[in-house]
Write a structure and sequence with these properties.
elongated; 2 domains; single chain; alpha/beta; 15% strand; five-stranded mixed β-sheet; three-stranded parallel β-sheet; 253 residues
Length: 253
């Protein structure tokens, strides 16, 4: 078995698919598996091949998916690559094997196990994105920049940032993924870009959560005031707002 691995970014995964497909043309798709780096199930009898990013290969794969299958198929693959599920990358690869044979109809074949699996992964990523759109809380630092910390399971901070770029276009802000040590930075009336941080950067940025302003206290008071004590239901609250998502939510600190 040839196991292709890559870094946990969408661009790297597209390059990984490119090289895996190239190898599969010689040995067959059944002899190839794709895994994200750090999640490999090490075996003495498998050959591991690490794939690095190549812009031309990345563009070729994206272009082929959109033109030879469909935009919907590309969306399925894109969200699968954002997922934290261990089999997400290999599922995307299996989905593409069938997609390039069948064409755009592949996205409607819900009785196919690979299609069902990638649709399920996509749904989970979209749900997590919507959750964090609602649970994101910003701290104002010196009335100059707004900082938000999140710890999503899937790599969804860019998708979350698109929501706030539409609603806060004239503000300086950044949304930080503490798990992946990266952030999306938005400048006033400018474009967004992704930046990766060192451990030291993260230790400094962690202090931004200790900064309180008048709106922090007002929000906590508002949260307590609108609560109806006789309808207090922590179990229902956990269903609507899971405990693991509350770490950086102002009203629960």
């Amino acid at each position: 078995m040839y196991i292709f691995t890559c870094e946990n970014t969408f661009e790297d995964m597209m390059c990984c698919i490119y090289h895996a497909w190239e190898k599969a043309l010689k040995v067959g798709h059944g002899c190839v598996r794709l895994e994200k780096r750090g999640e490999e199930q090490i075996s003495l009898f498998d050959e591991y091949i690490y794939v690095e990013y190549n812009e031309e290969e990345y563009k070729k794969v994206v272009r082929s998916i959109k033109h030879k299958i469909s935009e919907e198929a590309y969306a399925c693959v894109y969200y699968a690559c954002l997922s934290s599920e261990q089999d997400a990358l290999d599922t995307a690869y299996r989905f593409l094997i069938k997609g390039f044979k069948i064409g755009s109809d592949i996205t409607f074949m819900r009785n196919d196990p690979d299609v069902m699996r990638i649709k399920d992964i996509r749904r989970k990523v979209l749900h997590e994105t919507r959750y964090f759109m609602e649970f994101a809380r910003f701290n104002s630092i010196g009335n100059k920049v707004y900082v938000c910390h999140l710890e999503p399971e899937s790599d969804v901070i860019y998708e979350v940032s698109l929501h706030f770029a539409d609603r806060m276009p004239s503000e300086n802000w950044l949304i930080i993924d503490d798990n992946r040590k990266k952030s999306v930075v938005h400048t006033t009336d400018g474009q967004m870009y992704i930046r990766y941080f060192t451990d030291y950067d993260m230790s400094v940025l962690a202090k931004t959560e200790d900064v309180n302003d008048e709106y922090t206290d007002m929000w906590k008071i508002f949260f307590e005031t609108i609560a109806i004590k006789h309808r207090y239901n922590p179990e229902c609250q956990r269903n609507l707002m899971p405990v693991w998502m509350r770490k950086h939510v102002t009203e629960f600190q």
